[in-house]
């Protein structure tokens, strides 16, 4: 049986889930050779139907393959299709990599008898083994998002790796937090040419010094020396920065819809949420840090009282923690209600009456129906939100592409809030470093109309705090 010989130093065999996860993945290895088993094409064909994000990705992969094969004949397909000529790659990134498809049966005699090739994963491992046997001078690598397939491949002697190109950061600990703790001697080295002034009741400082180059716009800075100094960076120009003293939302005089911040991080978050000049806010932190409550309070204050926005739009990914309860009857809002328990719980806290009487419950329902609209992610494409306060909950379960789809729905006068905890990801094949929430935090951190705050302290109850620390 003739075997395929490949040029170049490396050969990558792509699993179906990699293509489903990122349709452009075939171009991410363009300086090397990429091999697509026939069973992968069959799995792609099975997954092309529907309106889900995965189905859209599958159809896009098929279009990429079709365009690469437009002018290719059978001989060219056998020799490999040039990936470097792809119109989807910038000219400076085009290289000599080739795309190969399986055109004949490939069987390795190293596959254990107990592993039947009727299973797709075993077939892919079998093909990678055979390619490795016939190209001993090259490194054959199986790329898969499936951990178990990678484990199986490594046991059988096949080099296997996860797909890393979608990862925003190598280490999630380096993700932008939105704040910086200044040394206690900060003013000694930064007050030489300091200027201060007030505008409309707001206090500004213009300072220069060595730490300025480490700041970003809308980052919070504070000194933990008991002085209570906390400010937000408004502008950076060469060696000079303009900072503004923060509003202290821990004070009862600055309450938002009846609530006050319980710590400095929540106060920073409210500064971002209440700032009409900031169009995009992301809040990241574990359960109980107040993300939903703060966002909802700011939304009600600015929609109902200040009239900055004419409606509150709430959406989230419908990924269950336990077993799925199946299809839900009713309208779009009725179907979404079970997923919005966090918002209805917080609305009860924020409602005008804390009693359990009918009037209090009716007041909560009135707020829900008049100001707050619950929308499903499935119907977001093509929409434009004008003068809306949009809250995206559980954003860590969104892919970067889904996040882009949602945020680009924002029209004039709309503010978008993303809430989530990258430590609680329920979507398959997403990790802390490839989550859509991580993606937007990293990409928006230098934009002057956005802000981010990582919350650390839980504020639910002493019981919840103890359970979080000890269970």
TrEMBL record:
<feature type="domain" description="PIN">
    <location>
        <begin position="10"/>
        <end position="151"/>
    </location>
</feature>
<keyword id="KW-0547">Nucleotide-binding</keyword>
<comment type="similarity">
    <text>Belongs to the PhoH family.</text>
</comment>
<dbReference type="InterPro" id="IPR051451">
    <property type="entry name" value="PhoH2-like"/>
</dbReference>
<protein>
    <submittedName>
        <fullName>PhoH family protein</fullName>
    </submittedName>
</protein>
<dbReference type="InterPro" id="IPR003714">
    <property type="entry name" value="PhoH"/>
</dbReference>
<dbReference type="InterPro" id="IPR002716">
    <property type="entry name" value="PIN_dom"/>
</dbReference>
<dbReference type="Pfam" id="PF02562">
    <property type="entry name" value="PhoH"/>
</dbReference>
<dbReference type="Pfam" id="PF13638">
    <property type="entry name" value="PIN_4"/>
</dbReference>
<keyword id="KW-0067">ATP-binding</keyword>
<dbReference type="InterPro" id="IPR027417">
    <property type="entry name" value="P-loop_NTPase"/>
</dbReference>
